[in-house]
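Appendix C: a fully annotated inverse folding record. The material below is reproduced so that readers can follow the format used throughout the book. The structure is listed first as tokens, followed by the designed sequence.
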């Protein structure tokens, strides 16, 4: 789909400091959107500007935000609307995978971090973005960067899945819930899920990863 309708509008990308999130943020800024990246290490997002053309780099902004913390998300979205305008596109990219087994003793922190980042942060960010979209014409697009582990996974020698697959299965279900709720509230907001496998650094650098969920 073409980007003309999104030119100059605001996009928020979570986990934008590296990987898929960085690629999405750069792609959107390079194609005319005003992009706000959320990450704990905002200096990494700021460094991405140097890799873009000057005009595109000026459209990429960073806000420090730990998406495991609801209040930081709420505050970030309030700041975004105040400083940049209403959110039109949200890319829920932030996600983690911890290395402990589900049955390991003392793994409570890993369990909480995974659910807080992979599930609750998506719910909080989408809630805040949808509110802004609904208040400003009911138009927008929400993307969920999911994983093939949200549909099927198998034993991998030496790998501990922890709550990663359950959290990605949750994201798969959330996508359908959002589709139904966006219709329920009579909006034009769309939802798209992208289920990625293992990606190479070249793939990420080329922005190709965002083609699968291009607005």
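Designed amino acids, in order:
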């Amino acid at each position: 789909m073409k980007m003309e309708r999104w030119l100059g509008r605001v996009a928020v990308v979570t986990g934008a400091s590296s990987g898929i999130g960085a690629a999405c943020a750069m792609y959107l800024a390079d194609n005319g959107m005003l992009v706000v990246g959320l990450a704990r290490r905002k200096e990494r997002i700021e460094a991405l500007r140097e890799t873009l053309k000057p005009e595109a780099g000026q459209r990429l902004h960073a806000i420090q935000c730990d998406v495991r913390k609801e209040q930081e998300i709420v505050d970030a979205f309030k700041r975004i609307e105040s400083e940049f305008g209403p959110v039109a596109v949200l890319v829920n990219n932030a996600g983690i995978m911890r290395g402990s087994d589900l049955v390991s003793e003392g793994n409570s922190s890993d369990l909480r971090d995974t659910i807080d980042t992979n599930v609750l942060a998506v719910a909080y960010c989408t809630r805040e973005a949808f509110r802004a979209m609904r208040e400003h014409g009911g138009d927008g697009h929400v993307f969920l960067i999911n994983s093939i582990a949200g549909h099927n996974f198998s034993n991998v020698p030496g790998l501990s899945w922890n709550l990663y697959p359950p959290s990605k299965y949750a994201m798969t279900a959330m996508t359908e819930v959002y589709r139904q709720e966006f219709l329920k509230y009579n909006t034009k907001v769309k939802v798209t899920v992208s289920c990625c496998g293992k990606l190479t650094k070249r793939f990420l650098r080329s922005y190709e990863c965002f083609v699968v969920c291009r607005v």
